[in-house]
């Protein structure tokens, strides 16, 4: 499409002036262009789209001529093209075919990239939809579980409230009954204590006779009669104070001169009545201790019931807080579910759009696949040639390796020869030095010999 726009920019009147009958005068170009393209062009030659595809080669030729001859105006180019269309098209037919082929390759690459992009987008959309479905399913399951938990907690809370209400009512009624019984027991104990005090006073008054009369009646008795023992009561400390009997004065018991004389039978009756009163007092003390123990137990039970009531109120407040938290979580989950549903709806719309675009791209890809197969066949042939060249290159590389090995061997041999040559040079230098020394010795010997000969000659002449 960029080539067509450039051609219209060069000559805008070319598309309207060029008739569809120009195809009849270009046999060489028809032979070079693929047959499927010619069939497609001839089948729909009346449409303006086919005019654009037909004018692509011519626009490329014009653009090429404009780059070659920039001085010539476009009107001259049109005239020259109309005057001799066959010769120029025969010269530039391969260029137009290569341009068309490059255009198809670019279009194919663009379609492939678009298809890959749409496939990736579709895969991402499918993954997002599947993840959103899983998330929605998990959220629905979580919501149902939370609803069941909330319903169970609500039932448990209602049951616990009912039980707590009934238990509190029972405890209150029990506390009221115990307080009533406690008050009744306190009144009874007070009456018993009053009666016991009166009985003790009576026993103090009527149990001790005059010591003189007693000595007369019973001379063997030196000790006073039996009196109720003054022993402390081991009872728990309570709010009710136990009344104490006043101590009996000894002077009143034994120094009473106004004591009337009584027969022996009256003294025995007084002693038996005194023992009965003592036994009754002991029983009353035991009953009082039991009452006090019971009062302490009832007070402990009241404290325990108060503690349980405080615990129930605390659990009630905790359950209310948990219910509020669960309600807040449910509201948050509902909002998130609505957002997820909206995202799912948008993802479905995007998936539909991507599916439509994918169908269109697949249709375009099917139309371009035939042309790609032809180009792939040519690429295979060229690949075979490239493989043959690679094999030749490998053989040449092996030869080069052999040559390199030989060169390495020669280099090692030359290094050995150089070392031997250096050794010979050293030996030669040493031999030269020795030769010089020997020559010096020879000269010295010759000089000595000359001197000796001269001396011999002189000696011979003297003789």
UniProtKB/TrEMBL annotation:
Signal peptide: none
Superkingdom of source: Eukaryota
Region (Disordered) location: 1-33, 68-89, 207-249, 428-463
Organism per entry: Bimuria novae-zelandiae CBS 107.79
Lineage: Eukaryota, Fungi, Dikarya, Ascomycota, Pezizomycotina
Protein name per Swiss-Prot or TrEMBL: Uncharacterized protein
Polar residues: bias regions: 207-217, 450-463
Ranges of Basic and acidic residues composition bias in the record: 78-89, 428-449
């Amino acid at each position: 499409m960029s080539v067509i726009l450039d051609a219209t920019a060069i000559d805008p009147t070319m598309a309207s002036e060029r008739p569809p009958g120009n195809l009849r005068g270009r046999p060489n170009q028809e032979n070079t262009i693929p047959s499927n393209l010619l069939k497609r062009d001839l089948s729909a030659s009346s449409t303006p789209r086919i005019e654009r595809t037909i004018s692509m080669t011519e626009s490329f030729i014009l653009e090429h001529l404009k780059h070659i001859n920039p001085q010539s105006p476009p009107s001259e180019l049109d005239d020259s093209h109309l005057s001799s269309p066959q010769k120029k098209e025969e010269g530039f037919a391969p260029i137009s075919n290569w341009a068309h082929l490059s255009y198809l390759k670019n279009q194919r690459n663009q379609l492939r990239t678009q298809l890959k992009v749409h496939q990736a987008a579709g895969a991402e959309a499918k993954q997002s939809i599947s993840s959103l479905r899983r998330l929605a399913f998990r959220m629905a399951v979580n919501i149902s579980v939370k609803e069941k938990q909330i319903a169970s907690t609500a039932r448990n809370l209602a049951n616990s409230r009912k039980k707590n209400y009934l238990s509190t009512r029972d405890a209150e009624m029990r506390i009221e009954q115990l307080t009533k019984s406690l008050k009744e027991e306190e009144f009874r104990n007070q009456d018993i204590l009053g009666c016991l005090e009166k009985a003790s006073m009576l026993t103090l008054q009527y149990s001790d006779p005059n010591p003189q009369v007693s000595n007369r009646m019973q001379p063997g008795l030196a000790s006073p009669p039996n009196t109720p023992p003054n022993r402390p009561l081991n009872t728990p400390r309570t709010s009710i104070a136990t009344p104490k009997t006043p101590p009996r004065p000894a002077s009143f018991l034994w120094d009473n001169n106004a004591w009337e004389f009584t027969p022996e039978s009256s003294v025995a009756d007084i002693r038996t009545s005194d023992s009965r009163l003592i036994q009754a007092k002991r029983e009353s003390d035991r009953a009082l201790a039991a009452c006090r123990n019971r009062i302490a137990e009832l007070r402990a039970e009241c404290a325990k019931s108060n503690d349980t009531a405080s615990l129930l109120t605390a659990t009630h407040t905790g359950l209310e807080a948990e219910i509020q938290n669960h309600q807040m979580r449910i509201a948050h989950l509902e909002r998130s579910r609505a957002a997820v549903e909206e995202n799912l709806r948008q993802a479905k719309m995007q998936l539909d759009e991507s599916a439509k675009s994918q169908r269109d791209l697949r249709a375009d890809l099917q139309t371009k696949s035939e042309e790609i197969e032809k180009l792939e066949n040519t690429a295979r042939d060229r690949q075979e040639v490239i493989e043959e060249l690679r094999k030749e290159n490998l053989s040449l590389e092996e030869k080069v390796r052999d040559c390199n090995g030989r060169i390495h061997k020669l280099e090692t041999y030359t290094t050995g020869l150089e070392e031997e040559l250096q050794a010979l040079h050293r030996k030669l230098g040493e031999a030269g030095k020795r030769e010089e020394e020997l020559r010096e010795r020879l000269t010295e010997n010759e000089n000595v010999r000359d001197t000796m000969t001269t001396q011999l000659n002189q000696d011979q002449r003297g003789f």
